[in-house]
Fold these 2 entries.
Entry 1:
Amino acid sequence: MTIRNVSIIAIQEKFSNTITKQLKEIIGDKVNIHSVTVKDIQRHTITKDDVVVLSNNLIKGLVNELIPEECPVVVAKRDINYVNTKELLNLPSGQEILVVNDNKTNADETVQSLSETVFEHNYQAYSPTEVMPKTIDYIVTPGEGHLLPKELSNVIDIGSRLLDFNTVEEIIQLLEIDIAKSQIVRRYFKACVSLSTKNNDATDRTKNDRNVANYSFQDIISTSESMKQTVELAKHYAVNSQIKYIHMEGAPGTGKNMLAQAIHNLSDRSELPFVSVHCNSKNLNEAEEALFGLKNSGASPGVFESGENGTICIEDIEELPLVMQKRLFQQLNDKSIKAKVITTSSKDCKELVKKHLFYDELFHLVNEHYLKVPDLSERKEDLLPLIDNIKQRIQKEGITFKEEVLEFFMEYPWNNNVKELYDVITYLSLLEESPIGMKFLPFYLRSKVDEQKFKDIDKNKMIISKIEEHGFLGESIEILKAFYEGKKEYVSFGRYALKKHLEKKGHNLSEQQLRARLEVLQNLGLTIVRQGRAGTTISRSGEEFIEDYLKSQESTKGGK
């Protein structure tokens, strides 16, 4: 029987890695599973016998022409990994929970999943354009903790969402796999456990079975001086047939693999195979098999056999353990190896050698010809040309950005470099908005702007908790409201006037009780006690607290 292929297409590599691993856990013994991001897909990537899984419906327009008509297409539906919900289940019922995801649609879907299953709590999807609720007990995020300030104490990360069971079942039906539903269920939950927050390492890129060098130097933007120097040196290395080893160092997302492909395509080996191996995996057996093949098994050749006399790219070489680095050195030092070997690293291997974390002989061998790929933050002159290039590649040249967004892009550090820029522009292109303003940016880009909002949740929760310790939250809110309204109307309240005002609201307090409540509010910085007849007034912090509290109460009423 012919083994069929499942091809996963996504914008973000994080999603494709997670779903690839999930499907391998469920049907990896019955089909080949590949993944590709929108930026890397080419006409030959998907074959006519593939079952195609799209990360969402929005990318159909971007990839439709690259998918053969014969291919059945499944649009992924996702669900939370319920293996990760133990902390939620252990909370007292009735918690007010804010759900934060990378965009409003995904946040709404997560809220729906949680509400349907972990129904003991009240959930609200976070949106930067809406009023932030202040009476929040916990913040829940499905693997998007980087969107939140690090110092928040009430965050529960339930891990990345997975393909829901119905999507998995649809894929299996299209593949015509003969497997009992009970077995699918068992394997589905095995995958959930494997991908739980305790066990998850979604990186699954040890070997790419569809190795093709798609990029040339014409595809590489190099307006900046730093990138120009790198490209010129890379071209020199490419055309020199005597150069056998090239080592590239650069942070993740800087485009090292793209540069390796360009070197291959400019060299005299361009008609020969280009084979890439990614070493950034905890599964050492897979890495060993990819590099050296299986003993006594012609069915699984190593990279040096499948690469023949072409180009072999070994990515993140520093992730290999020392014992495997020594074996790799012995293999590379073999005079029978005719291929050009390009190695890449995200760390400074010279420093690793000093710390005895990298095999020195291997370093001196591969570092014979060195390339430093600069961070995007070091080549800001390339930013706007890169954006134009991305728009052209995804056929969305009509989208424009407001000046405030372009200014933000120029100031933003782009920690994940060109890869992050590509993901952001592709995401924005799917919104069909133009010009694109700040409010349309992905949540995490606005995290610095939104950071204070999340801190206010913690602060207001602490204030309410402190007042509740004394058992008079309702009375304290009425006191703050009286001071707040009085300040707007230029009306002051002495203690006697305040006592009478509270009695009208149904709060009958003795002088001693009122004094105690005012003392707590003063200690929390919500009121200011003035000398003489001026009495007590509300502080700026008190105004912010009561405004947020009243807004959240209105929001809660509106949602019921």
Entry 2:
Amino acid sequence: MADKRMRRKAANTGSVRSNYRKRKTVTASILIPVFFLNVSVPGASIWAQTNRISQTQSEDKQIQDDLISEDKQVQDDLISEDIQTKDQHAVTFAQLNDNEVFLKQSQARVCTLTASTMMIRRAAMLSGNQDWRQITEKSVRKYAWAEKTGLKWNFTAAGVSVVHKSLSSINELIGLLDKHPEGVVIYNARKPHAILVTDYTDGILYCSDPSNDKPSGRYPIAQASITAESASRCWYVKSPVNLTVVKTDADRQSEQAANGLMYRVLDQEKKTVSCTGRVSDDTTVTIPETVILDGVEYQVVQIAEGAFADAAKLKEITIGANIAEIEPKAFYQCKKLRKVTIHAQNLKKIGTDAFAKIHKKAQILIVGKQVETFASLLTGTSVPVTATVGAGKQ
């Protein structure tokens, strides 16, 4: 590419430089007879020769100015091309965190491999690799995996070099994320599992957990199988370096925290949002009817897929009256969840396994709607057979 640019630059300026050399020759031919030949020249002739010299020098200066202008234009064109090339490869925050980018592990005990594959896919996207979708757990495995021992400390796959190091604190993790928008894989040796930590935004760590018991996509680390505090090792990308992601205003507003819960805007005109998860592991949670984000009041109409899945400490939850949909696995495997109060005036849908594996003796109390009507919505949600469903108090 550089050679082509230089050849083009030479072609653009070659004719100008040739004219400049000719002018220099003419100037020399004039100067020689005047200054080196000691002959008598009439005054008018000397004046004419001097005038020609002055005119030639002026033309020479113009040619030099033209050369400088031409060089500047070529440099500007090259810079413009570089910017256009970078723009073509620019990846937005939303694209980097699209659900399509993330993966689920194909089998047990390969969480480190799957998490690393997601990280490599993101690094490939940021470096302009249009074939990042071809990077799969299987394609990375032959370079990164050692049978019987697991993920290698250091390896290169799909042109991305990955290295390993011990991890001493959350601050160290945040420091790595600041330099690595593709994310960092963390591993808990005591509870053997790995996740990809994707970013640290507005004081919250986000991740994607390769476990099939967890939702797909990006969400707060509070919803993952392990915590950042429990991680003792990590893998990160050594090269390519200086990768960057483009954050737009829409990206920054895509998910926001309020009162310990996360929300995503569904419809700006209708002013509706989905509750997508939690920021911390609280024992009691209330999903409100409305929430104020950036000074605007929204109705909370949905609980997103896997929003509270595997919330280890959650014991009681109250669901506001504007909720129309509870998505699949919303409360999956909340083993201590004993009391669910639903203000069900607008509830129309409960997704598969929304209440699967909650406490065996859980109480689900319905407020504002007939229990029989609500019970029909619970079909296929895997509510424990020992749980009770009844009417709650207004």
